[in-house]
Design brief:
Blueprint (H helix, E strand, L loop, with lengths): L11 E5 L2 E7 L6 E4 L3 E3 L1 E2 L4 E6 L7 E6 L3 E3 L15 E2 L23 E4 L1 H4 L5 H5 L2 H7 L3 E4 L3 E2 L12 E5 L6 H13 L3 E6 L11 H4 L4 E6 L2 E4 L4 H17 L4 E4 L13 H16 L4 E4 L22 E3 L1 H12 L13 H11 L6 E3 L5 E3 L11 E4 L3 H5 L13 H13 L4 E4 L18 H15 L16 H7 L9 H21 L7 E8 L2 E7 L4 E8 L15 E4 L11 E8 L1
Parallel strand pairs: 10-11, 10-23, 11-14, 14-17, 17-18, 18-19, 19-22, 22-23
Antiparallel strand pairs: 1-2, 2-6, 3-4, 3-7, 5-6, 7-8, 7-9, 12-13, 15-16, 20-21, 24-25, 25-26, 26-28, 27-28
């Protein structure tokens, strides 16, 4: 498919000199009207499209589509829903916003250090504008980017965002479209990149009417969260690619993180991932911007990754590296339920493999997946292809209580894990509040009604009834507002003694990364890494013939460093002692 023909408005409305043109792909409908002050017939066109231009419509006009004279629905490509997913759509003029940072072209990928956040719980106000108030904090901590969990319109007033049904519309719970643009603009003014999490594997369950008038959107298959989307259909493919361009062009996001792409059941040929990347690459080339695309992919397909080529040409900068998290979580907590069983036998060995070659699973059988082979060889890639983290929204909120790592792990062990995560060559990611050691939960929450709400509530408890039977009565009700409120960040905790101490650690580590490692990251390659008992060692080849070298004791007891280990110029942890203290980390750099 020629993606050069795809534009953000191939679905949805466009404002022109003669009025507003309304377009709807409704191949399952016999008749379509657009309802403003009254119903206006739309002309049937080829391939199931309906279109009309209304001269008196303008920015701010509210409208719905009426299907076969009986069902009124919002625009599936609505730019804004002021009255939630069941209300009318609003015509938005995307050219009206006055950008301050017109010269912003992005930052190189190797500069990336991300803070993931949920807009609704990041601040007590829970809006795009309120998030602006905390951007200086993000900069002060030494981070270079924020990543928003999905903001596409969902049913109700609170949601993680992965139940979005109107994928072009920022949810009204967080503010209006220009409020989101202001957040991006203010972040750029502070030198911060802004990434957006997007979902192209399913639509949310409430407020989605596509089955009625465009059933071809869906394949005869399911994802764990709903009907699969069929990207073999050209109009469906254009919808997703147009959505990516919509966020990147109209809102000037610096990149996207595509959620759970392993759950895209019908990717088409060439794959929707390939075509989306190429379309974004065309936008980047045309504008001169640095745009970064990142995957979440449980299949560990290294062949999809290329962190060095710009603009994107069918591949992706990086992947969230769940293997890194899972191995650390198993080591730090001792848990071995669910996917942690894959790392239970020797988590240090898995950490060493991730640090030395990318994924822990590169084609080996996964016990958690019924011994199905998982992953592809990844050691030939740049370390920049892997986003490493100790926590993220999933790995906190998908637990029964939404409890954070700091609840289960002592300070020495967590400090060691952070010192490795933030100084390894891979781009690091923190989850909001982690920079000051937040201990409050981030439980799963939503705001559905009726039978769907009951189904979610029961499903949540059933999910954990076997592995966490002792917690069944304590699992928060995801439908209760109090569950949502418990997740709102307590910013006062950042000013406590412990909060200040952890924040100082993060600042120190990221400053060291910026000063010592970042200038040498381009051209970085994996070298060697191993784990001997509790002792972890790893090398990376940096630019200019330099070597970055790690030595760590990942245990509660003292241990001797390997006899053959040769430290270079110390950049973290001080001089090497004869006995390595428990949970000690030493970083050095120099000619290897």
């Amino acid at each position: 498919m020629d993606t050069s023909a795809l534009a953000p408005n191939s679905h949805g409305v466009s404002i022109g000199p003669t009025g507003v043109t309304f377009r709807l792909w409704a191949p399952g409908a016999k008749r379509v009207e657009v309802v403003l002050d009254r119903a206006h017939p739309m002309q049937a066109q080829a391939q199931g499209w309906y279109q009309t231009t209304i001269p008196h419509a303008r920015a701010g006009t509210l409208y719905k589509y009426r299907i076969d004279g009986e069902l009124e629905v919002p625009d599936p490509a609505s730019d804004f829903q002021p009255q939630d997913v069941f209300g009318p759509s609003e015509v938005i003029d995307h050219d009206r916003f006055e950008w301050r940072m017109n010269d912003w072209g992005g930052r190189p990928w190797e500069n990336t250090a991300i803070l993931e956040l949920h807009v609704g719980t990041f601040t007590p106000g829970g809006t795009f504008r309120k998030a602006i108030d905390k951007l200086d904090h993000v900069v002060d901590a030494g981070l270079t980017a924020i990543e928003l969990m999905p903001v596409a319109d969902f049913a109700g007033r609170r949601n993680w965002g992965y139940d979005g049904v109107l994928l072009y519309a920022p949810d009204s719970a967080y503010g209006r479209p220009d409020d989101l643009r202001m957040l991006v603009d203010e972040a750029h003014a502070r030198g911060l990149m802004v990434f957006l999490d997007v979902v192209y594997n399913h639509f949310g369950p409430e407020g989605n009417y596509l089955h009625r008038y465009a059933p071809a959107f869906f394949a005869y298959a399911h994802t764990p969260w709903g009907h699969a989307i069929d990207y073999r259909v050209p109009e469906v493919r254009a919808f997703a690619i147009g959505n990516a361009l919509h966020w990147l062009e109209r809102y000037r996001f610096d990149g996207l993180r595509l959620d759970a792409v392993h759950a895209i059941v019908e990717p088409g040929e060439p794959s929707i991932l390939h075509d989306l990347s190429r379309a974004v690459g065309q936008l980047a080339a045309a504008t001169g911007r640095l745009i970064h695309l990142v995957l979440e992919n449980d299949d560990n397909r290294s062949s999809l990754l290329d962190p060095l080529t710009h603009p994107p040409r069918g591949r992706y900068r990086a992947q969230w590296n769940d293997d890194y998290h899972h191995a650390w979580h198993r080591l730090l907590t001792g848990e071995e339920e669910g996917y942690y069983q894959d790392y239970a036998a020797d988590p240090r060995r898995h950490i060493a493999r991730v640090l030395s070659s990318g994924f822990a699973y590169q084609g080996e059988p996964s016990p958690h997946r019924n011994d199905r082979n998982r992953g592809e060889a990844s050691g030939s890639l740049s370390p920049l292809a892997f986003v490493n983290f100790l926590q993220n929204h999933d790995q906190i909120g998908n637990r029964p209580l939404g409890d954070r790592l700091a609840i289960h792990t002592g300070e020495p062990a967590l400090t060691a894990a952070l010192a490795i995560t933030l100084l390894a060559p891979m781009p690091p990611l923190l989850f909001m509040g982690e920079e000051w050691g937040a201990t409050q939960p981030f439980p799963f929450f939503c705001d559905f009604q009726g039978p769907l709400a009951d189904a979610v509530r029961k499903g949540r408890r059933k999910e954990f009834e076997r592995a966490y039977a002792e917690l069944s009565g304590a699992i928060p009700d995801p439908l209760e507002e109090a569950t949502f409120r418990s997740a709102v960040l307590d910013w006062h905790a950042s000013a406590t003694r412990n909060g200040r101490k952890r924040l100082a650690l993060i600042r120190n580590l990221l400053a060291t990364r910026r000063q010592e490692i970042l200038p040498r990251l381009v051209g970085t390659k994996f070298a060697v890494g191993r784990c001997d008992g509790p002792i972890l060692t790893s090398d990376w080849s940096l630019a200019g013939g330099q070597t970055l070298r790690l030595l760590a004791n990942l245990s509660d007891a003292e241990a001797k460093p390997p006899r053959a280990f040769r430290p270079l110029r110390s950049i973290w942890g001080g001089e090497l002692p004869a006995e390595l203290p428990p949970w000690s980390v030493f970083w050095s750099i120099g000619a290897g």
